[in-house]
Fold this sequence. Notes:
Elements: E1 4-8, H1 12-24, E2 28-32, H2 35-44, E3 49-53, E4 55-56, E5 59-60, H3 61-71, E6 76-81, H4 86-94, E7 97-102, H5 107-135, H6 148-161, E8 167-170, H7 177-186, E9 195-199, H8 205-213, H9 230-233, E10 238-242, H10 249-261, E11 263-264, E12 273-274, E13 278-283, H11 287-292, H12 298-304, E14 307-310, H13 321-336, E15 342-343, H14 345-352, H15 359-373, E16 378-379, H16 386-389, H17 401-419, H18 423-430, H19 434-443
Parallel strand pairs: 1-2, 1-3, 3-6, 6-7, 8-13, 8-14, 9-10, 10-13, 15-16
Antiparallel strand pairs: 4-5, 11-12
Helix pairs in contact: 2-3, 6-7, 13-15, 17-18, 18-19
Amino acid sequence: MPRSVLIVEDEAIIRTSLREFLSDEGYQVADAGTVAAALTLARQRDFQVAICDVQLPDGDGLMLLRRLQQLNPSISGLIITAYATVENAVEAFKSGAFDYLVKPVIFDDLANKLNRLFQYRELSLENQALRRELARHFEGDEIVGSSRAIIAVQQALRRAAVTNSNVLLAGESGTGKELFARTLHKWGPKQNEQFVAVNCATQPTELLEGQLFGAKAGTVPGTKGELTAILSQATTGTVYLDEVALLPLSTQDKLLRAIEFQEFTPLGSSEPRRTHARIVAATTRDLVKEVAEGRFQEDLFYRLDGVKIRIPALRDRLDDVPELVEFFVSKHSRAMGQKATGATSETIRLLMSNPWKGNVRQLDNALERAVMMCDGTQIRPDDLPPDLRGDEQPLPDTDDLRSALRHYERLHILRVLRQWPEKREAAKRLKLGLSSLYRKIEELGIDL
């Protein structure tokens, strides 16, 4: 695969000499003199490496590198600076640069650093592929992702797993808290014992307490026979309490006693029973606020909050989107007998620009639908749900037909340009002349 490089340098002589040198070395090279021009090129095609000057006429090269990595998470960066200082080097590395070059650029130095960078990329991609292949053997029960946020969570899980402490998982709905709870259990010394999950938000109080603490026959309306307590069923394993903030106060009292004294009394019985299960609780709510407003017992909060692990929202771990996409596409393709194996770069960029209010669960559902709609091996933007493509944009708040038509025209041209970034092809699809398309872009204020 040809090695592609984007050069962003405002001095024409330097830009031209770098382009000619790298072209002679066998690289596919494109160049730009401004931040705006560089972003336009990055939206039209994928580059493996960006070489960015720090000082640009319309912005900062470090900021540009961060924006390029948002468009294409796999792009690597080299920074050009006029001053070789420790501070400049630190700033470059913080912005995600692999290395930096000092002006005047020495071609041999550039060639060596590019060779090292591509060797590193190849090893990194091979490592990621091996990790993904290994993860496929676990039928979806493995944490997917290698972002800093997820690595930090995994480290916290490993430290907590070897203890018998109760753990509180906090995070938004759809972040996969039960998966993290199961991983915590699997990494612990009691992995061969039971893992039992209970949703505290979906059942009547009596039935919930009957499941947790057990109940004599006839004690809980609508049930037949005796209910076995989950706290007993788990033996020395793990009881996972989802949405623990929604436990009724009376149930909280009983749970607190079970944690403090390792015993509980089944409903309809006077004989206490022992429990040695570990409690892993999860919540989407702020338990400190719930305590302050009297909806959650303070003593129970402190019992659960001893080891607290926050599960990041998907928007805070966007670097994991490409891995998650490949994982979910592979999973759903196997389940449906489809041939999709991945997604196009344009699709990945579109997915990474989404706010993901429903987090990983929303991404999973969107990709399940996309696999169903996909005709080839790569998921394209048109295969995604309309709300992710941005097709369902509201019309302007006006009765003026001209304004509404202008608004729709702008959205339609934007959609076609997203799918076909090359202007000549986009004009052909829109059945416009190339000059007419450029005129429309200017008239409608379309920002490319």
